[in-house]
Amino acid sequence: METAAFEAAVADHVEDPYDALTDTIALYAAVASLSERQRDAILLHYGMGFTAAEAAEVMGNEEATVRSQLRTGRERLAVTLKLRCPEHPDGKNHS
Fold this sequence. Notes:
- The chain is mainly α.
- It is built from 5 helices and no strands.
- The two termini are 20 Å apart.
- Belongs to the sigma-70 factor family. ECF subfamily.
- This is RNA polymerase sigma factor (Sigma-70 family).
């Protein structure tokens, strides 16, 4: 369930290359706006396929800290990209 916001964004397949480029730039900008630790956790986990435990080892953090950074990073990305937030039962972004 933790990738629902990202899967929802991908589900709306875009045929227009300009729209795809615009969406890609928006995603990169949103990821770049995260704190360094959140960005590292997001990129290690989603970009490189590391588990939270593996990312924690690379980052020198506890696994629980990385899980928290992933959750907070996902929530911030959902707000920035105006996506439904899967962490909340009503799907709304509470920021």
